[in-house]
Amino acid sequence: MRKWKQICACCLTAVLTVSGPAATAWAVSPEFARTPEEWARLRDNVMEYDELAGLIREYNVTVRKNQLDISDKKKDDLITSDQYAQNYRDAAAEKWSEVTGDDAVADAGTAMAARNAEVSADNNVEDLQVYQLTYDQQEANLVATAQSSMIAYFQQNYELEGAKDSLELLKAVYDSTVLRQSAGMATQVDVLTALEAVQNAQAGIDKLTASIDQTRQTLCVMLGWKYNDMPDIRQIPAVDMERIAAMNLEQDKAAALENNYTLKINKRKQGNSISGVTIESLGRTIESNVQNINANMVKNYQTVLQAKAAYEQAAAEFELESKNMGTAQRKFDIGMMSRLDYLKQKNTYNSKSTGIKTAELALFQAVQTYENGVKGLALAGGM
Fold it and tell me: For the domain with range 237-383, which CATH number is right: 3.40.50.300, 1.20.120.1200, 3.30.1490.100, 1.20.1600.10?
Protein backbone atom coordinates (compact mmCIF):
# COMPACT_ATOMS: atom_id res chain seq x y z
CA MET A 1 0.00 0.00 0.00
CA ARG A 2 2.83 2.39 0.89
CA LYS A 3 4.53 1.67 -2.43
CA TRP A 4 1.26 2.35 -4.30
CA LYS A 5 0.86 5.69 -2.52
CA GLN A 6 4.42 6.62 -3.45
CA ILE A 7 3.73 5.82 -7.10
CA CYS A 8 0.52 7.89 -7.04
CA ALA A 9 2.36 10.79 -5.43
CA CYS A 10 5.05 10.67 -8.11
CA CYS A 11 2.44 10.61 -10.87
CA LEU A 12 0.58 13.54 -9.32
CA THR A 13 3.80 15.51 -9.01
CA ALA A 14 4.57 14.85 -12.66
CA VAL A 15 1.16 16.14 -13.72
CA LEU A 16 1.35 19.23 -11.53
CA THR A 17 4.81 20.20 -12.78
CA VAL A 18 3.77 20.07 -16.44
CA SER A 19 3.33 23.59 -17.80
CA GLY A 20 2.05 22.79 -21.27
CA PRO A 21 -1.40 21.66 -22.44
CA ALA A 22 -1.08 18.34 -20.62
CA ALA A 23 -1.39 20.30 -17.37
CA THR A 24 -5.08 20.95 -18.04
CA ALA A 25 -6.25 17.99 -20.13
CA TRP A 26 -5.58 14.33 -20.79
CA ALA A 27 -4.64 13.40 -24.34
CA VAL A 28 -7.12 11.66 -26.65
CA SER A 29 -4.59 9.14 -27.95
CA PRO A 30 -3.06 6.38 -25.81
CA GLU A 31 0.56 6.80 -24.79
CA PHE A 32 1.81 4.24 -27.31
CA ALA A 33 0.29 6.19 -30.22
CA ARG A 34 3.23 8.59 -30.26
CA THR A 35 6.94 8.40 -29.52
CA PRO A 36 8.24 9.85 -26.22
CA GLU A 37 9.87 12.63 -28.22
CA GLU A 38 6.57 13.52 -29.91
CA TRP A 39 4.75 13.59 -26.57
CA ALA A 40 7.48 15.75 -25.06
CA ARG A 41 7.06 18.34 -27.82
CA LEU A 42 3.28 18.40 -27.42
CA ARG A 43 3.47 18.65 -23.64
CA ASP A 44 6.06 21.40 -23.33
CA ASN A 45 5.15 25.04 -22.85
CA VAL A 46 6.03 25.94 -26.44
CA MET A 47 3.50 26.54 -29.22
CA GLU A 48 4.88 25.78 -32.68
CA TYR A 49 3.10 25.95 -36.01
CA ASP A 50 3.88 22.39 -37.04
CA GLU A 51 2.47 21.11 -33.72
CA LEU A 52 -0.99 22.63 -34.17
CA ALA A 53 -2.59 19.54 -35.70
CA GLY A 54 -1.21 17.32 -32.94
CA LEU A 55 -2.32 19.70 -30.20
CA ILE A 56 -5.83 19.91 -31.66
CA ARG A 57 -6.04 16.13 -31.91
CA GLU A 58 -4.90 15.49 -28.34
CA TYR A 59 -6.20 18.40 -26.29
CA ASN A 60 -9.05 20.21 -28.07
CA VAL A 61 -12.35 19.88 -26.19
CA THR A 62 -14.49 19.44 -29.32
CA VAL A 63 -12.25 16.67 -30.66
CA ARG A 64 -12.31 14.93 -27.28
CA LYS A 65 -16.12 15.14 -27.16
CA ASN A 66 -16.42 13.75 -30.70
CA GLN A 67 -14.11 10.86 -29.88
CA LEU A 68 -16.27 9.97 -26.88
CA ASP A 69 -19.42 10.15 -29.02
CA ILE A 70 -17.96 7.81 -31.65
CA SER A 71 -16.92 5.39 -28.92
CA ASP A 72 -20.44 5.46 -27.46
CA LYS A 73 -21.98 4.79 -30.87
CA LYS A 74 -19.71 1.79 -31.36
CA LYS A 75 -20.66 0.47 -27.92
CA ASP A 76 -24.35 0.88 -28.75
CA ASP A 77 -23.83 -1.04 -32.02
CA LEU A 78 -25.21 1.92 -33.97
CA ILE A 79 -22.92 1.24 -36.89
CA THR A 80 -24.86 0.95 -40.15
CA SER A 81 -27.60 3.02 -41.75
CA ASP A 82 -29.80 -0.10 -41.72
CA GLN A 83 -29.49 -0.32 -37.95
CA TYR A 84 -30.36 3.35 -37.59
CA ALA A 85 -33.33 2.80 -39.92
CA GLN A 86 -34.47 -0.18 -37.87
CA ASN A 87 -34.69 2.04 -34.82
CA TYR A 88 -37.12 4.28 -36.73
CA ARG A 89 -39.15 1.24 -37.85
CA ASP A 90 -39.28 -0.05 -34.29
CA ALA A 91 -40.53 3.34 -33.19
CA ALA A 92 -43.15 3.28 -35.94
CA ALA A 93 -44.32 -0.18 -34.92
CA GLU A 94 -44.63 0.94 -31.33
CA LYS A 95 -46.73 3.91 -32.42
CA TRP A 96 -48.99 1.75 -34.60
CA SER A 97 -49.58 -0.54 -31.62
CA GLU A 98 -50.91 2.46 -29.72
CA VAL A 99 -53.73 3.00 -32.25
CA THR A 100 -56.72 1.55 -30.38
CA GLY A 101 -59.74 2.81 -32.31
CA ASP A 102 -61.19 4.30 -29.10
CA ASP A 103 -60.25 7.93 -29.78
CA ALA A 104 -60.21 9.10 -33.40
CA VAL A 105 -58.30 12.31 -32.66
CA ALA A 106 -55.62 10.57 -30.59
CA ASP A 107 -55.36 7.76 -33.13
CA ALA A 108 -54.84 10.27 -35.95
CA GLY A 109 -51.93 11.92 -34.10
CA THR A 110 -50.39 8.55 -33.24
CA ALA A 111 -50.74 7.33 -36.83
CA MET A 112 -49.08 10.47 -38.13
CA ALA A 113 -46.13 9.94 -35.76
CA ALA A 114 -45.87 6.33 -36.95
CA ARG A 115 -45.87 7.35 -40.61
CA ASN A 116 -43.23 10.04 -39.93
CA ALA A 117 -41.03 7.41 -38.32
CA GLU A 118 -41.49 5.16 -41.35
CA VAL A 119 -40.52 8.02 -43.67
CA SER A 120 -37.45 8.69 -41.51
CA ALA A 121 -36.52 5.00 -41.81
CA ASP A 122 -36.81 5.13 -45.60
CA ASN A 123 -34.84 8.38 -45.82
CA ASN A 124 -32.18 7.45 -43.26
CA VAL A 125 -28.69 8.19 -44.57
CA GLU A 126 -26.62 8.27 -41.37
CA ASP A 127 -24.15 5.63 -40.31
CA LEU A 128 -20.96 5.48 -38.30
CA GLN A 129 -18.83 6.43 -41.29
CA VAL A 130 -20.88 9.57 -41.87
CA TYR A 131 -20.40 10.57 -38.24
CA GLN A 132 -16.68 9.81 -38.40
CA LEU A 133 -16.23 11.87 -41.58
CA THR A 134 -18.19 14.72 -40.02
CA TYR A 135 -15.99 14.69 -36.93
CA ASP A 136 -12.83 14.43 -39.06
CA GLN A 137 -14.00 17.49 -40.96
CA GLN A 138 -14.59 19.38 -37.72
CA GLU A 139 -11.09 18.50 -36.54
CA ALA A 140 -9.52 19.60 -39.84
CA ASN A 141 -11.44 22.90 -39.64
CA LEU A 142 -10.23 23.42 -36.08
CA VAL A 143 -6.64 22.94 -37.23
CA ALA A 144 -7.20 25.45 -40.05
CA THR A 145 -8.67 27.93 -37.56
CA ALA A 146 -5.69 27.49 -35.24
CA GLN A 147 -3.33 28.06 -38.17
CA SER A 148 -5.12 31.27 -39.15
CA SER A 149 -5.18 32.46 -35.53
CA MET A 150 -1.45 31.90 -35.11
CA ILE A 151 -0.72 33.75 -38.36
CA ALA A 152 -3.03 36.58 -37.20
CA TYR A 153 -1.18 36.70 -33.86
CA PHE A 154 2.08 37.60 -35.60
CA GLN A 155 0.37 39.92 -38.08
CA GLN A 156 -1.07 41.84 -35.14
CA ASN A 157 2.33 41.94 -33.44
CA TYR A 158 3.96 43.36 -36.55
CA GLU A 159 1.18 45.92 -36.78
CA LEU A 160 1.81 46.80 -33.14
CA GLU A 161 5.52 47.34 -33.85
CA GLY A 162 4.59 49.73 -36.65
CA ALA A 163 2.09 51.56 -34.46
CA LYS A 164 4.67 52.06 -31.71
CA ASP A 165 7.17 53.43 -34.21
CA SER A 166 4.56 55.81 -35.58
CA LEU A 167 3.77 56.94 -32.03
CA GLU A 168 7.43 57.83 -31.53
CA LEU A 169 7.33 59.98 -34.66
CA LEU A 170 4.04 61.64 -33.66
CA LYS A 171 5.45 62.51 -30.24
CA ALA A 172 8.45 64.09 -31.94
CA VAL A 173 6.11 66.06 -34.22
CA TYR A 174 4.15 67.21 -31.17
CA ASP A 175 7.30 68.35 -29.36
CA SER A 176 8.42 70.18 -32.49
CA THR A 177 5.03 71.85 -32.82
CA VAL A 178 5.18 73.05 -29.21
CA LEU A 179 8.63 74.57 -29.87
CA ARG A 180 7.40 76.18 -33.05
CA GLN A 181 4.42 77.65 -31.15
CA SER A 182 6.77 79.19 -28.61
CA ALA A 183 8.64 80.79 -31.51
CA GLY A 184 5.42 82.09 -33.03
CA MET A 185 5.59 79.67 -35.96
CA ALA A 186 2.61 77.49 -34.98
CA THR A 187 -0.82 78.05 -33.46
CA GLN A 188 -2.58 76.47 -30.51
CA VAL A 189 -4.75 74.60 -33.01
CA ASP A 190 -1.59 73.08 -34.52
CA VAL A 191 -0.50 71.92 -31.06
CA LEU A 192 -3.87 70.41 -30.25
CA THR A 193 -3.98 68.66 -33.63
CA ALA A 194 -0.56 67.13 -33.00
CA LEU A 195 -1.61 66.10 -29.50
CA GLU A 196 -4.78 64.48 -30.81
CA ALA A 197 -2.71 62.46 -33.29
CA VAL A 198 -0.56 61.20 -30.40
CA GLN A 199 -3.62 60.26 -28.34
CA ASN A 200 -5.28 58.46 -31.27
CA ALA A 201 -2.10 56.51 -31.93
CA GLN A 202 -1.90 55.48 -28.28
CA ALA A 203 -5.54 54.37 -28.36
CA GLY A 204 -4.79 52.30 -31.44
CA ILE A 205 -1.87 50.67 -29.65
CA ASP A 206 -4.05 49.85 -26.66
CA LYS A 207 -6.67 48.30 -28.95
CA LEU A 208 -4.05 46.25 -30.79
CA THR A 209 -2.54 45.05 -27.53
CA ALA A 210 -5.94 43.85 -26.34
CA SER A 211 -6.57 42.14 -29.69
CA ILE A 212 -3.22 40.32 -29.50
CA ASP A 213 -4.04 39.10 -26.01
CA GLN A 214 -7.46 37.90 -27.18
CA THR A 215 -5.87 35.97 -30.04
CA ARG A 216 -3.38 34.39 -27.62
CA GLN A 217 -6.20 33.36 -25.30
CA THR A 218 -8.16 31.83 -28.19
CA LEU A 219 -5.13 29.81 -29.27
CA CYS A 220 -4.40 28.66 -25.72
CA VAL A 221 -7.94 27.39 -25.11
CA MET A 222 -8.12 25.66 -28.51
CA LEU A 223 -4.81 23.86 -27.95
CA GLY A 224 -5.21 22.72 -24.36
CA TRP A 225 -3.66 25.49 -22.29
CA LYS A 226 -5.59 27.63 -19.83
CA TYR A 227 -6.72 30.98 -21.22
CA ASN A 228 -4.29 32.91 -19.01
CA ASP A 229 -1.25 30.72 -19.73
CA MET A 230 1.72 32.30 -21.47
CA PRO A 231 3.29 29.64 -23.70
CA ASP A 232 6.29 30.49 -25.84
CA ILE A 233 4.70 31.09 -29.25
CA ARG A 234 7.32 30.43 -31.90
CA GLN A 235 7.59 32.21 -35.24
CA ILE A 236 5.70 31.05 -38.32
CA PRO A 237 7.95 29.10 -40.75
CA ALA A 238 9.21 30.80 -43.90
CA VAL A 239 7.15 30.54 -47.05
CA ASP A 240 8.14 27.58 -49.23
CA MET A 241 8.65 29.28 -52.58
CA GLU A 242 9.52 25.96 -54.22
CA ARG A 243 6.09 24.60 -53.26
CA ILE A 244 4.43 27.59 -54.91
CA ALA A 245 6.46 27.08 -58.08
CA ALA A 246 5.51 23.40 -58.11
CA MET A 247 1.75 23.94 -57.74
CA ASN A 248 -0.27 22.15 -60.41
CA LEU A 249 -3.82 23.41 -60.29
CA GLU A 250 -5.37 20.61 -62.34
CA GLN A 251 -3.73 17.86 -60.28
CA ASP A 252 -4.58 19.68 -57.05
CA LYS A 253 -8.23 20.08 -58.09
CA ALA A 254 -8.42 16.33 -58.64
CA ALA A 255 -6.89 15.70 -55.20
CA ALA A 256 -9.25 18.24 -53.64
CA LEU A 257 -12.25 16.39 -55.07
CA GLU A 258 -10.95 13.06 -53.85
CA ASN A 259 -10.22 14.32 -50.35
CA ASN A 260 -13.11 16.71 -49.77
CA TYR A 261 -14.98 15.90 -46.57
CA THR A 262 -18.33 17.35 -47.61
CA LEU A 263 -18.27 15.46 -50.90
CA LYS A 264 -17.35 12.21 -49.16
CA ILE A 265 -20.17 12.67 -46.65
CA ASN A 266 -22.78 13.36 -49.33
CA LYS A 267 -21.65 10.41 -51.45
CA ARG A 268 -21.86 8.16 -48.41
CA LYS A 269 -25.34 9.46 -47.62
CA GLN A 270 -26.44 8.86 -51.19
CA GLY A 271 -25.09 5.30 -51.00
CA ASN A 272 -27.10 4.76 -47.82
CA SER A 273 -30.32 6.18 -49.29
CA ILE A 274 -33.34 4.03 -50.13
CA SER A 275 -35.79 6.74 -51.17
CA GLY A 276 -35.55 7.75 -54.81
CA VAL A 277 -36.32 11.35 -53.93
CA THR A 278 -33.46 11.45 -51.45
CA ILE A 279 -31.05 9.83 -53.91
CA GLU A 280 -31.95 12.36 -56.59
CA SER A 281 -31.70 15.31 -54.20
CA LEU A 282 -28.27 14.22 -52.96
CA GLY A 283 -27.18 13.68 -56.56
CA ARG A 284 -27.90 17.33 -57.34
CA THR A 285 -26.08 18.36 -54.17
CA ILE A 286 -23.04 16.30 -55.14
CA GLU A 287 -22.95 17.88 -58.60
CA SER A 288 -23.04 21.31 -56.94
CA ASN A 289 -20.29 20.25 -54.52
CA VAL A 290 -18.00 19.30 -57.40
CA GLN A 291 -18.53 22.64 -59.14
CA ASN A 292 -17.99 24.60 -55.93
CA ILE A 293 -14.81 22.70 -55.02
CA ASN A 294 -13.28 23.30 -58.44
CA ALA A 295 -14.20 26.99 -58.31
CA ASN A 296 -12.85 27.37 -54.79
CA MET A 297 -9.52 25.77 -55.74
CA VAL A 298 -9.18 28.16 -58.70
CA LYS A 299 -9.93 31.09 -56.39
CA ASN A 300 -7.41 29.87 -53.79
CA TYR A 301 -4.75 29.44 -56.48
CA GLN A 302 -5.33 32.96 -57.77
CA THR A 303 -5.09 34.26 -54.20
CA VAL A 304 -1.68 32.60 -53.86
CA LEU A 305 -0.44 34.25 -57.07
CA GLN A 306 -1.77 37.65 -55.97
CA ALA A 307 -0.20 37.30 -52.52
CA LYS A 308 3.11 36.28 -54.12
CA ALA A 309 3.06 39.37 -56.34
CA ALA A 310 2.27 41.57 -53.33
CA TYR A 311 5.14 40.01 -51.39
CA GLU A 312 7.58 40.60 -54.25
CA GLN A 313 6.41 44.21 -54.49
CA ALA A 314 6.86 44.68 -50.74
CA ALA A 315 10.35 43.18 -50.97
CA ALA A 316 11.31 45.60 -53.76
CA GLU A 317 9.97 48.58 -51.79
CA PHE A 318 11.85 47.47 -48.69
CA GLU A 319 15.11 47.13 -50.63
CA LEU A 320 14.74 50.67 -52.00
CA GLU A 321 13.85 52.08 -48.60
CA SER A 322 16.84 50.32 -47.03
CA LYS A 323 19.11 52.35 -49.32
CA ASN A 324 17.28 55.54 -48.40
CA MET A 325 17.64 54.68 -44.73
CA GLY A 326 21.36 54.12 -45.13
CA THR A 327 21.72 57.55 -46.71
CA ALA A 328 19.63 59.18 -43.97
CA GLN A 329 21.65 57.47 -41.25
CA ARG A 330 24.93 58.85 -42.66
CA LYS A 331 23.46 62.35 -42.93
CA PHE A 332 22.12 62.23 -39.39
CA ASP A 333 25.43 60.96 -38.00
CA ILE A 334 27.33 63.95 -39.42
CA GLY A 335 24.65 66.48 -38.49
CA MET A 336 23.25 67.09 -41.96
CA MET A 337 19.73 65.91 -41.04
CA SER A 338 17.47 67.00 -38.18
CA ARG A 339 16.21 64.49 -35.66
CA LEU A 340 12.63 64.98 -36.84
CA ASP A 341 13.49 64.37 -40.50
CA TYR A 342 15.53 61.35 -39.45
CA LEU A 343 12.59 59.95 -37.51
CA LYS A 344 10.34 60.47 -40.53
CA GLN A 345 12.73 58.49 -42.71
CA LYS A 346 13.09 55.84 -39.99
CA ASN A 347 9.30 55.55 -39.76
CA THR A 348 9.04 55.07 -43.54
CA TYR A 349 11.76 52.42 -43.41
CA ASN A 350 10.09 50.59 -40.53
CA SER A 351 6.76 50.75 -42.35
CA LYS A 352 8.32 48.99 -45.35
CA SER A 353 9.96 46.48 -43.02
CA THR A 354 6.60 45.73 -41.43
CA GLY A 355 5.07 45.60 -44.91
CA ILE A 356 7.33 42.81 -46.11
CA LYS A 357 6.75 40.80 -42.93
CA THR A 358 2.97 41.06 -43.16
CA ALA A 359 3.07 40.37 -46.90
CA GLU A 360 5.01 37.18 -46.24
CA LEU A 361 2.46 36.12 -43.63
CA ALA A 362 -0.37 36.85 -46.07
CA LEU A 363 1.38 34.68 -48.66
CA PHE A 364 1.92 31.95 -46.08
CA GLN A 365 -1.80 32.05 -45.22
CA ALA A 366 -2.78 31.90 -48.90
CA VAL A 367 -0.57 28.85 -49.46
CA GLN A 368 -1.94 27.18 -46.32
CA THR A 369 -5.55 27.79 -47.41
CA TYR A 370 -4.74 26.28 -50.81
CA GLU A 371 -3.07 23.26 -49.17
CA ASN A 372 -6.02 22.80 -46.82
CA GLY A 373 -8.30 22.83 -49.84
CA VAL A 374 -6.28 20.05 -51.45
CA LYS A 375 -6.47 18.06 -48.20
CA GLY A 376 -10.27 18.21 -48.04
CA LEU A 377 -11.41 21.66 -46.90
CA ALA A 378 -12.18 23.34 -50.22
CA LEU A 379 -15.56 25.04 -49.91
CA ALA A 380 -18.16 22.66 -51.33
CA GLY A 381 -21.44 24.26 -50.36
CA GLY A 382 -24.22 22.50 -48.46
CA MET A 383 -24.52 18.93 -47.27
Answer: 1.20.1600.10
